[in-house]
């Protein structure tokens, strides 16, 4: 399988601080890759360099083998690389169905004048969008709340609606920004299932998470960063046993105690 997304020696500084330094890793099509690191490790900065918010000072970002370093966020989204947000951004006055359908519209191929004229192309497209929306709601177990006002639902369900809306844009790769943040244990367990289900639909996943346990349970491949540099990479078991990872997460003294 080929790399969908690849970072080659990517780095950026803020003032004198090297926030991300010479970072390389790739995300293969069909994989769930976890990017983890303690607070301040540089995860958000990596995220922002992939999605076009920041331009890396060094290195290259490749999408399906082509360089996208420094491309604008809208172009990157159009290529099929979409992100979720930690904060809920649902339209409060709209139903779950309408919120998810709004995500479909971002990916619609329709020209504005087709909409104005009510041409057959537009009607066909609308029927396709409605069908796609229903399918996503069904897969994410949201069909029972399709007509509910989105923001009336429990927090964990609202997070799932956000995911559904992002999927409606038909991404090839989805970057999840700390999807477990604020979830209770039951919601967190349900999230694992949702992540596997998303992968089953053919969407590749980059999971950016602070919580090591969530990442370890679902990822095929884990990349660990600390102080902006990659300190370990491999499958969950390998990474979990890596002394550098234990030290980064627990601190040197605790890590020595664990080792003893
Ligand atoms: N725009 C900025 N200007 C200055 N410094 C920044 C900026 N963005 C990030 N940094 C610094 O870069 C380092 C990496 O920050 P980043 O937010 O990427 O870490 P993180 O791993 O996402 O942390 P957290 O888990 O706490 O969100 C930190 O020291 C942070 O203070």
Descriptive notes:
With 260 residues, this protein is α/β, with parallel strands linked by helices. The protein contains eleven helices and ten strands. It has helices at 43-50, 73-79, 96-107, 112-117, 120-139, 155-168, 185-200, 212-218, 236-240, 243-250, 252-259; strands at 3-14, 17-28, 32-36, 58-63, 66-67, 81-83, 173-177, 204-209, 221-226, 229-234. Strands 6-7-8-3-9-10 form a six-stranded mixed beta sheet, with helices on both faces. Strands 2-1-4-5 form a four-stranded antiparallel beta sheet, covered by helices on one side. Helix 7 (185-200) links the parallel strand 7 and strand 8 (204-209). The radius of gyration is 20 Å and the shape is globular. The protein binds adenosine-5'-triphosphate. Residues 14, 17, 19, 37, 39-45, 210 line the site of adenosine-5'-triphosphate.
Strand order in the sheet with the most strands: 6-7-8-3-9-10
Going by helix content, strand content and strand pairing, the class is: alpha/beta
Largest sheet: 6 strands, mixed
The hetero molecules present are: adenosine-5'-triphosphate
Oligomer: single chain
Report low-confidence residues grouped into runs of 5 or more: none
The sequence of SSEs as H and E is EEEHEEHEHHHHEHEHEEHHH
In percent, how much strand structure appears in the residues?
15-25%
Distance between the termini: 41 Å
Radius of gyration, Cα only, in angstroms? Answer: 20 Å
Kindly state the number of beta strands.
Answer: 10
Total DSSP helices: 11
Mean pLDDT, rounded to whole units? Answer: 89
Which geometry do the CA atoms define? Answer: globular
- Work out the helicity level: 40-55%
């Amino acid at each position: 399988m080929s790399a969908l997304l690849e970072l080659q020696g990517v780095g950026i500084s803020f003032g004198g601080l090297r926030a991300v330094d010479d970072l390389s890793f790739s995300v293969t099509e069909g994989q769930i890759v976890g990017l983890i690191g303690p607070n301040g490790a540089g995860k958000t900065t990596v995220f922002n360099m992939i999605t076009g918010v920041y331009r890396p000072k060094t290195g290259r970002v490749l999408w399906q083998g082509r360089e996208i370093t420094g491309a604008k966020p809208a172009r990157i989204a159009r290529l099929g690389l979409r992100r979720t947000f930690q904060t809920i951004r649902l339209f409060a006055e709209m139903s779950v169905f309408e919120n998810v359908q709004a995500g479909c519209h971002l990916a619609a191929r329709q020209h504005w004048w087709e909409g104005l004229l009510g041409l057959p192309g537009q009607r066909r497209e609308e029927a396709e969008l409605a069908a796609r929306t229903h399918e996503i709601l069904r897969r994410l177990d949201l069909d029972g709340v399709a007509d509910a006002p989105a923001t009336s639902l429990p927090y964990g369900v609202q997070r799932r609606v956000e995911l559904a809306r992002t999927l409606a844009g038909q991404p090839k790769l989805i970057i999840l920004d700390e999807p477990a943040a604020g979830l209770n244990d039951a919601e967190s367990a349900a999230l694992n299932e949702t992540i596997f289900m998303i992968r089953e639909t053919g969407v590749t996943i980059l999971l950016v998470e602070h919580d090591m346990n969530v990442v370890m349970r679902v990822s095929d491949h884990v990349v660990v960063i600390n102080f902006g540099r990659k300190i370990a990479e491999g499958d969950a078991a390998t990474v979990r046993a890596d002394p550098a990872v234990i030290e980064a997460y627990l601190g040197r003294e605790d890590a020595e105690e664990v080792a003893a």
